[in-house]
Amino acid sequence: MRNLLTMNALSVLEIEEIIGQAQDFAAGEGWFPDRPTYVANLFFEPSTRTKSSFEMAERKLGLQVIPFDAGTSSVLKGETLYDTARTLEAIGVNALVIRHEQDAYFAELAGRLNIAVINAGDGCGHHPTQSLLDLMTIKQEFGGFNGIKVAIIGDIRHSRVARSNADALKRLGANVVFSGPPEWFDERIGNGAYEDMDTAVKTADVVMLLRIQHERHAQNHHRTNADYLERFGLTKAREKSMKPRAIIMHPAPINRGVEIDSDLVECRRARIFKQMENGVYIRMAVLKRSLEQAKGGTVYENNHQKWSIAR
Amino acid sequence: MRNLLTMNALSVLEIEEIIGQAQDFAAGEGWFPDRPTYVANLFFEPSTRTKSSFEMAERKLGLQVIPFDAGTSSVLKGETLYDTARTLEAIGVNALVIRHEQDAYFAELAGRLNIAVINAGDGCGHHPTQSLLDLMTIKQEFGGFNGIKVAIIGDIRHSRVARSNADALKRLGANVVFSGPPEWFDERIGNGAYEDMDTAVKTADVVMLLRIQHERHAQNHHRTNADYLERFGLTKAREKSMKPRAIIMHPAPINRGVEIDSDLVECRRARIFKQMENGVYIRMAVLKRSLEQAKGGTVYENNHQKWSIAR
Amino acid sequence: MRNLLTMNALSVLEIEEIIGQAQDFAAGEGWFPDRPTYVANLFFEPSTRTKSSFEMAERKLGLQVIPFDAGTSSVLKGETLYDTARTLEAIGVNALVIRHEQDAYFAELAGRLNIAVINAGDGCGHHPTQSLLDLMTIKQEFGGFNGIKVAIIGDIRHSRVARSNADALKRLGANVVFSGPPEWFDERIGNGAYEDMDTAVKTADVVMLLRIQHERHAQNHHRTNADYLERFGLTKAREKSMKPRAIIMHPAPINRGVEIDSDLVECRRARIFKQMENGVYIRMAVLKRSLEQAKGGTVYENNHQKWSIAR
Question: Could you tell me if residue A310 is inside a domain?
Answer without folding.
Answer: no
